[in-house]
Amino acid sequence: VQLQASGGGLVQAGGSLSLSCAASGRTTFSTYIMGWFRQAPGKEREFVAAISGSGVITRYADSVKGRFTISRDNAKNTVYVQMNSLKPEDTAVYYCAADYNVVPRAVDREYDYWGQGTQVTVSS
Q: Exposed (0-12), middle (13-18) or buried (19+): which is 115, by Cβ within 10 Å?
């Protein structure tokens, strides 16, 4: 599975951004859970959100709950994260990840496939 993340950019605090992650390869996209993680400078990579293959089950980090929404379109082999009410502390490189599994995971080492990352910068 190859993953290509896009949609990052610079936004003011309180603004919104939508990230996309397109998957390709000889695979059935709906059999993979998808996750978003982020890594700020000098910090460890942290969980943001994850979604089951069907899209029914989602989970979020407490820091983004109520502000971010993860979704997927299996017909387009794409997962999204809509980020609203952005804060300067959301500034990071955002990565999408995939794993052949059923239940969405919040631990990065449980994901086998990773995209290249897209920068999100939130100015105060």
A: buried
> pLDDT per residue over 22-52, tens digit each?
999 988 999 999 999 999 999 999 999 999 9
Half-sphere exposure of 93 toward its Cβ, with a 13 Å CA cutoff? 12
| 5-14 per-residue burial string, b: 16 or more CB within 10 A, e: under 16 | bebbeebeee
Give the integer Cα–Cα distance in Å for 104 and 55. Answer: 10
Query: What letter represents residue 102's amino acid?
Result: V
Confidence of residue 114 (pLDDT cuts 50, 70, 90): very high
Angle CA 59–78–29, to nearest 5? 85
Instruction: State both tokens at 79.
Output: 């997962």
Q: Which two tokens stand for residue 117?
A: 């990352």
